[in-house]
Amino acid sequence: MGIIDIRVTIYIMAMFITESIMKITRRALLCGIFSIFITFAGSAESTPSISEIWKLVQAQQEEITRLKQALANTLQSAQAQKQKAQLTEERLDETTEFVENLAKNDSPSKSSAFANTSIGGYGELHYNNVNTEGSRKNTKQADFHRYVLFFEHEFSDKWQFYSEFELEHALSKDTSDGSNSGEVELEQAYLQTSLNDEHYLRSGVFLVPIGILNETHEPATFYGVERNDVENIIIPGTWWEAGAAVGGHYNSGLSWDFAVHTGLQTPTSGGSAFRIRSGRQKVSKANADNLAYTFRTSYSGIPGLSLSATLHHQTDMSQFSGDGLGSANLISLQGIYSWEALSIKTLWSRWDMNGNAVELAGADKQTGWYIEPAWTFKIKEHKTGIYARYEDLNAARGQDQFDQWEIGMNYWPTESVVFKIDYRDRDHDLAVESGRDFKAFDLGLGYHF
Length: 449
Known about the structure:
Elements: H1 3-22, H2 26-40, H3 50-103, E1 117-132, E2 139-154, E3 159-168, E4 183-194, E5 199-207, H4 230-234, E6 240-249, E7 254-262, E8 291-299, E9 305-314, E10 328-339, E11 342-353, H5 356-360, E12 365-379, E13 382-394, E14 401-414, E15 417-428, E16 438-448
Antiparallel strand pairs: 1-2, 1-16, 2-3, 3-4, 4-5, 5-6, 6-7, 7-8, 8-9, 9-10, 10-11, 11-12, 12-13, 13-14, 14-15, 15-16
Helix pairs in contact: 1-2, 1-3
């Protein structure tokens, strides 16, 4: 075969290969043609043989096949990414819908009837080891003092309902000697509406806005196994009434509260004559012939400082006229100051009562005050606090006229759980009551949620 025939043959084969490559990809065509021309470049004396050309064609075919596979893989990968993106978008849509349902209180795990209802509570267990001077009233006892449940419900952005249901001393049982006689009590049940961002209106059964502990008395919020005696005897906490209240709270730290409500029905005879705590009606068929009024103003505009002053007026302390006990006023002043690990609380309260009978009994002025410094630190990263408290009381009964020293420690393994230990030393003012002087060791645990 001559050189011309060989070149004709090469030309025909090149045309055939070129047509095949064009069906696959332009890139493969260019690469193939370029390779052939490079191979044939040179003088006629170096013209390749038929077998060499065939090997070259086979190599180009393999390259074309590889490029086709790469193209197919690229297309397949792009399709997979498209499907994955589509799946991700669908899942995002589902998540958005679920969150929107939660916002509308349509969560499948919570019935819409209770979507705006919250439950909370607190409890405290006490152990008291009391050794009296006369030894006749020595006691060692354990008592689940309080078990409380809170129920709150939001009717709308402006209207809410709050309630507090309490079981005292683990059970409620009527006995002739008064033992095992706990109580079931409804301490709060009121409606509240926001008049605007700064003012509220409240109506129903609520805690009287007075003192440090009367409104906030969860066990993890105060020192000591037992609550202080000033806010038990002079301020008869926990103290709740039925009525209406209005108040304002401002960004400056200034706030005020004014309430019109049922009053005390303090006895005028017997062993509890003129004893303030015995006058609590607890809104159980309460005599409402004579109402009471409470006004409180507070300031907390300085970091760490809280000051409050309360004026409370009873139009008739006994709810009956002509029994020697008439109107009465209670003034209460309190302050709390915290600076780093140190804090100090103090409260002073005084009753001034009108009436011949209460004046003759020498119970027309009843006062009490206490001061409580405390220091907090960490034990294994858990908050711990030590405190001391001094109280001085002069109330209606001789047994309620005393001064008392107390020291103790609180340990919080978590913010809402507390373990307590304290020691108390009480001395009565009247010699006739010296048999009631005691030294006590107390243990307690408490929680709230």
